[in-house]
Amino acid sequence: MKKSMYVIVLSVLFLSACKNDKKQAESNSMQPSEMNMEKAEGHEHGDHDHDATMGENSSKEERKIDATTQKNSATSAIIDSYLQIKNALVKDNKDGAAKGGTMMLTAFADFDMSQLNDTQHKEYMEILEDAKEQAEHIVKSPIDHQREHFENLSVDVNDLIALLGTDKTLYQSKCPMAGEGKGAIWLSEYKEIKNPFFGSKMISCGSVQKQIN
Amino acid sequence: MKKLKKIVLFLLIVFVGIQFIPTKRNESSEVLETDFSKTFTVPANIQNTFEKSCYDCHSNNTNYPWYNKIQPISWLLENHIKEGKKEFNFSEFGSYSKRKQKNKLKSLVSQIKDKKMPMQSYTIIHKDAKLSNADKEQIIVWINKLRDDL
Questions:
Q1: Under a CB-based contact definition with an 8 Å cutoff, are residues A180 and A187 in contact?
Q2: pTM (2 d.p.)
Q3: B43/chain A closest Cα distance in angstroms
Q4: Mutation test of the interface with chain B: which of A33, A43, A45, choosing the one with the most B Cβ atoms within 10 A?
Q5: Which domain does A177 fall in, by range?
Q6: Is B12 helix (H, G, I), strand (E, B) or coil?
Q7: Mean pLDDT confidence for A173-190
C-alpha cells in the first residue's frame, strides 16, 4: 500500500509538471494578440490625455470653477452623496462616510449621460472612473484611508462641477496641512470651516477660497 | 486504521484531480508600450525594485515559483493577482488618465509608508521582495517628484 502511494504521488508531480509546461506554452502563444489589442487601446487613451481638456487640467491642482457656474440639477445626487461623506468625516464617523460612498455609487449609476456632448463625455468618463474607485475604497476602508480617498474625490467632484455645473451654493475651502502638507481642497454647503481631513483633531483648520453660485 | 487509509486515499485523488483543472496564468513575455518603465524615465535601480517587489501581483507577468503552480495554492494566488492588478497595474499604467495616474502614485507612496505593501504574507516567502529603508526612501522621493511633474 505504502509503495503504491509513493507511485501515485510521484506520478502526480510528474503529470502536473508536464501540464504546466504545456499551459505555459499555450498562454505564451495566446498572449500577443490580446496584448496588441490592449496596446492599441492604451495608445488611444494616451492621446486623449494630450487633448486640450486634460492638458490644461493636469498642470493645476484642480480645475478652476468659473464665477458663472452653469445651473444644472443633474449633478445634485452626486454632490449630495459627496456632502454626506464630507459631513461624516467632519464628525469622525467612518460608517456614515461608508454610507455616503454607497450613495455616491448609486448616484453615478443613475446619472443620465445622454445629455453630455462629446468633449464633456470624455472628461466625464475619466472623472467617473476615478470617483467610483475613490467611493469604493471609502465604502470598505478605515477612516484614515477614507480621508486619503476623500482628498482625491474632492478634486473629482470639483472638476465635475466645473465641467457640468450645479444649482447648489457651495464653498470651496482649502486645508494647507492635508495632502501630506501640500494642501487639499474640499467642498461644503456652508461657509463655516469644519475640516473633514482631520475632523475633531483640527476642526477649524482651513479657509474658504471661493463661493460657487 | 482502515478508515484513515481510505480518507488519505480520497484526499489524494482529489488532490490529483484538481491538478487537471486549467488555470489561466498571469504570464506575458512582452513588455507593453503602456508599461510604467516606458511611460516614464525610471532610474534603473528603482525599476528593478518595482519588478522585484511589486510586479508579481501588479503587472501582467508574474514570476511563479514552482510551488505556486500546484493547486489549490495557485488558485489563492490568482485571486491575489487579480485584485492587485485591478488596483494598480504597472503593465498598463500608461493607459490610465492623468487623474488616475496621479492618484495611483499617491496611493503607492502611502501604501509603502504605512508598510501595507509589499504584503507581509508575500515577503515572508519572497525575502528578496522586502523593501529596505533605503529602498523606500528612494522610491518615495522619486515618486513624489514624478507626481509634481505630472
A1: no
A2: 0.72
A3: 22
A4: A45
A5: 70-212
A6: helix
A7: 90
